[in-house]
User: Fold these one by one.
Assistant:
Number 1:
Amino acid sequence: MSNPLFILAIASAALAVILIHARGAAHRLPPGPRGDVIGLLGKTSPLELFEQWREKYGPVISFSLFKRVVVLNDAQATSALLDKRGDIFSSRPRLVVAHEILSGGMRGISMPYGARWRTWRKIQAAGMSASAALMYREHQTLESTVVLGELLADATRLDTALRLFATVVMLSVSYGRRVRNLDDAMVAGNRQAGDEFQRASAPGKYLVEIFPFLLYLPRPLQWFRPALERIRARDTRTYLTFYRAAKEREDPKPCLATYARSEEGAGMTEVEVAYAISAPFGAGIDTTVSTMQWALVCAVLHPDVAQMLQTELDTVIGRSRLPTFADEPALPYFKAFIKEVMRFRPVVPLAVPHATTADSAYAGYDIPAGTTVYGNIEALMKDPKIFPDPETFRPERFLGHDDFALPFGFGRRVCPGMHIGLQSVFIVVARILWAFALSPASGAEPRLDAYVSLGLTRGPAPFAVSLRARDGDVARILEEEGAEAERRLGEWEYEINGAA
Ligand code: HEM
C-alpha cells in the first residue's frame, strides 16, 4: 500500500471516530461501554463480553466499533424491534469485501433488506418451507440409515458420519444430488467458496471495510480488488457448473435448483440464481451437526433422560424396525428433548446480526439508522423469567409446547432452513438413540462447558462416545435396510461435467 493512501486512511479513521461520537452525542443511545471495545474483543469472546455488559448495563446496550452496535438481551426488546418492526430492523451490516466485492452482492445471508433480498428469499421459501421440507424426508431417512450402518461398524466415525450426513442433505436440497464422500468436487467447490467468504468477513482484515470511501479511488488504485475479483470469477464458475448440471437433469429430484429455475429471467440472472441455491451449504451444515452433537452430549451426560427417551421410542416403535418421520407426533418427550437441547446449548448464540434502515427509538433510547443489532439468543434462553432454573437441563419444560422458533432467529430474517434442519436432527438422533446405548468414552469425554466456534456457530468441543447396539436385532435390521437404502439412494446420483 502506498504512503499517501495510508495517511489518507489514518486521517479518515480519526474523522470516522469523531463523527460516530458526534452523532452519538446528538442521540440518546442505550447505555454501554464507551471505551476501548476493540481491545476487549481481542481478549474475550463477544458472547462473554455481552453477558458482562448485560449484567452491568441492562437488557439493551450499545457501543461503537467503527459502527454503532446495539445488543438486545431480552425477549421484550427482540420481539418489539426485530419481530414487530421488521420494516426497519431486517437489514444486515454492510460487508464491503465479503459481500459486495467477493460475492458481487449475491449472497442472501449478507444482503441488505430490500427488493433483491426478497427475491432471493422467495427461492429459499419455495424450496425450504414447511411443506417443501416434506419432499426431502425420503432422502433424509435413507441417508440416516447409512449413518447408523457407519456407526455400527465403527463408532469412532461419529463426527465424520454426522458431517457427511449434513453435507449430503444440504447438497441434495440445493442440487438434488447425492455425494458419497467429503472429497466430492461438489463439496470441495462449495467449501472453497464458503471458506473464502469467511476469510474475507474476518473483522479488521481489510482497510476498505472500515473506510468504504476507498471504493471511490480509481479502480487501478484499489489494491485489494484484483485478488478478490479473481476469486469471485472462480466461485461464479463453480456455482454455475453445479446449477447447470442440476438444471440439465431430465428427471430431477425436488431441490432448490428446480424451484429456482422460474426466477431466472423473472427478476434474477442465471448467476444470481446459482449463488442463491448455494445458501444451504454455508448456513445449514455446521448448525445441523452442532445441534445433533449437543443432543448426543446431553443424552450421554443425563442418563435418566436417555432412559426416558429410549423407553418412549421402544413403546411407540418397538424393537423390530427403525423410527420414521411418521412416528414423530407420538414422541412428545423426544420432541421436548430436542427443544431443550436447542435452548440449553443454542448453536447460533448471537444469531446473525441485523441492521437498521431508518431511525427508531425504544424504551426512551434512540437507535439510529445504520445500527448493527444483535438479538442475543443465548441471553434469552438463560432468562429465568422465561425459563425458570435455566441452567438445569429439563426436557419436561417443553412438554405441551409445540412452537419454539427462537433458536432460529428473528423476524423477517428467521432461518428459512429450520424445517429441513429439524427434520435432519429428528431422524438422526431418534435413530441413534433407538439403536445404541450411549456412554462416555474415555479420553475425550463429552462436556457441557467445552465449545468450538465455527464462525457464528458454536458446537461442543470434540468428544468421544461409546455406542453399543441395544440388542441383537439392530445389526440385522441395519444390514437389511442399509442395503436397500444404498440401492434407492442411487436415484440421487449423477455426474457433473466440468467440475473443478
Ligand atoms: C438446524 C439448526 C439451525 C439453526 C439453529 C439455525 C439458525 C439460524 C439463525 C439463528 C439464523 C439467523 C436469523 C436472523 O438473522 O435473525 C439463520 C439464518 C439462516 N439459515 Fe439457519 N439454522 C439452522 C439450520 C439451517 C439449515 C438446515 C438451512 C438450509 C437448509 C439454513 C439456512 C439459513 C439461511 C439461508 C439463513 C439466512 C437467512 C437470511 O439472511 O434471510 N439454516 N439460521
Note: Residues 13 and 219 are 21 Å apart (CA to CA).
Number 2:
Amino acid sequence: MDAIELHDYGRIHAFTNMASRLVGCDTCQSPARLVGNTPVLWVPDLLGQTRNGFWAKIEGANPGGIKDRPALHMIIRARERGELAPGSPIIESTSGTLGLGLLLAGISYGHPATLVTDPGLEPLMANLLRAHGARVDVVPAPHPVGGWQEARRQRVRELRDRHPGAYCPDQYHNPDNVAAYGGLALELAGQLDRVDVLVCSVGTGGHSAGTARALRRMYPDMRLVGVDAVGSTIFGQPARPRLMRGLGSSIYPRNVDYDAFDEVHWVAPGEAVWACRTLARARYATGGWSVGAVALVASWLARTEPGHHRIAAVFPDGPQRYFGTVFDDAYCSRHDLLGVVPAEEPDEIAHPAEREVARWTRCADVTAPAEARVEVTQ
Ligand SMILES: Cc1ncc(COP(=O)(O)O)c(C=O)c1O
C-alpha cells in the first residue's frame, strides 16, 4: 500500500466523521444521551410453522435496559418541579432494572441513590447496582398480604422518614413513568411505519400504557396485548410466590391502564425459559423472563393474525442478568423448568376470576380488579 501523505489524514478524518454521522454513531457528553434509539429485530414464528413473525424492540440495547427511559424522565421532571433538590438522594424500590436507570440518571445529574430490594435479586444485579454507586438495602421478609413488593415499599417509607429531602420516584404510581415512553413509540412508528398490534409485559404498567397511548394517536385501531406472570395479581388472579421477575406484581400499580388492553396472557416460568432459550439459538437476541413471555405471545399472534399485520413486541432487557436463572440448567432443573415445551395455543378463560391459571392462558375480558379500584381511590 502507498504511504499516506499527511494531507490525506485531513480528508480521511472528514470522511470517517461524515460516515459515522450517516450511520448514526453519536458522540455523547453525558451518559443520559446513551439512552433510546434502540433497534428493532425481525423474529420469525418461534415454532417455525409459518413464514410470519414479529418485530422485537430491543430495549436491552439501552445501557441498563428499558427502565433507563422512565428513570431519566422521572428524575428530570422531579428536578424541574423542585421535588428533587440538587445533590439530594434518590430512594426507590426496584427489582433491578429501574435501579440501573436511576443510577444512570443519578450519575448524569448528581444524585446518590439508595435502592430497596429483596433477597430474590440476582447476585449479579446486586453487584452491578453497587458497582455503579448504589447503596443496596435488602428487606428481610415479605409483607403478609402485599408480598415482597409491599415490604419494599414500607422500607422506602421508613428510609424517607429518616432522610427528609430524599426523592422517591414511586414508579408504580408516578405518571412520569408512563409519559417517558412517548419516545419509544415515536421510534417504533419511524422504524415500522405502522403498528397493528403491540405486545408488552406488565409490571408497573408504565411501558404498556405510555407506548400504547402515544402509538394510538397515530394508529387508533392498534390493539394492545398485555403479558403477565402466572401468580401475579395485576389482572385479577390470586397472588402466589413467583420466580419470574420484572413482569407481574403482588400489588395493583396505578400506572396499569386497564382500559387500554384488548387482551391479557399469563405465562408460566417454564414456558418463558423455553422461549428465551429458543430465541437465543434462533435470533441471538434474547433476554429474561419478560422477554421470553412476550416472545411466546407475540409469536402465537404472528401465527394466528393475518400475515400483513405488523406486530411489535417490546423486549425490556438482555440476557446477562439471567445467566444464574433462565439460562442456568441447575437452577432450571431445581425449579422443574427444563424440558417444558409450551402448547401451540394458550388456554382460554372468559374472565380472570373464572379460575386460577397455572400455564399460558389468554383472556379477552380485561377490567380493573375490585382491589385495584380501591387502591386508585386511596
Ligand atoms: C425486565 C423487566 N421487564 C418488564 C418489566 C415491566 O415493565 P413496566 O414496569 O413498564 O410494566 C419490568 C419492570 O420493572 C422489568 O424490569
Note: The first helix runs from residue 6 to 22.
